[in-house]
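Worked example 2:
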Amino acid sequence: MKNSKFSLVVALLTVLLAVADATRLRVGYYEKTCPQAEAIVRETVAGFVVKDPAVVAALLRLHFHDCFVRGCDGSVLLNSTIGNTAEKDASPNLTLDGFHVIDAAKAAIEKVCPGTVSCADILALSARDGVSQKGGPSWAVETGRHDGRISKASEAVADLPSEYANIEGLIANFARKGFNVKDLAILSGAHTIGNAHCSSFSGRLYNFTGKGDRDPSLDQQYALTLKKECKRGDENSIVEMDRGSVLKFDSSYYRGVIRGRGLFASDAALLHSKVTKELVYAYARNTPQFFHDFGVAMIKMGRVGVRTGKKGEIRKHCALVNA
């Protein structure tokens, strides 16, 4: 009993400390120390989006995968070292992209404000700027995060939600990060943009229950189309997550889920909870409301597990901890 009480106290203290750090974030944190920072990030992202619009989804996914493991501390950006496999080399992260954009923005900022702006903040700003540049909402990004010094692949495997998760698993996973059921429905809307590898959903096409069958919740015509693009055993081909809207941030994702055309099992799972189902239908009809709520949820996500002060550092290079 004593051990249980001690564990509870430790958990509560951890939450309180995280909240305390999050309250130190603020919009315009660099306005005196590096007033050009946000403009540099915005211009850097815009330059890459012109060349490759798909980088928007990559940046958004990077930010999500960063915040869900150890909090929004840029740990997903760190390279593996001898004796340690970092988050970016964990199985759920092997298809992550967009690192080059963060590195370019960091290098540009270091030229004018060395040792001032964290990689974690650059990642948060880049995700916002990419979304807004492809027709999506913009939101006020709070800054002031410091970069973490630890990155472990095992934590990414344990903490990131699976594309095959059911609604109970998704709700539990999001709750561990301080999110509610509404946040789950909103943040899933990020699947309106970008591509996915066949390996992340092929089980729904060829072996859903272990008997060589397909997921009955998949629209039949949609499943046939996916089978043409992802042959049995093909893990590397890519398809659009939100067919017809791969390069535009909008609410069509929700209309696809309603029609049985959510690509992942976790997308279809949103129809298995009263709250998430109602939100799916609401956002399918009301894009402005989705945009507003998405911005609010992204601000909330940006506060997860942040490090400030001596709990982190301002990395000189986003892939390496400081010497």
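Residues 2-22 form the longest helix (21 residues). The mean pLDDT is 93.
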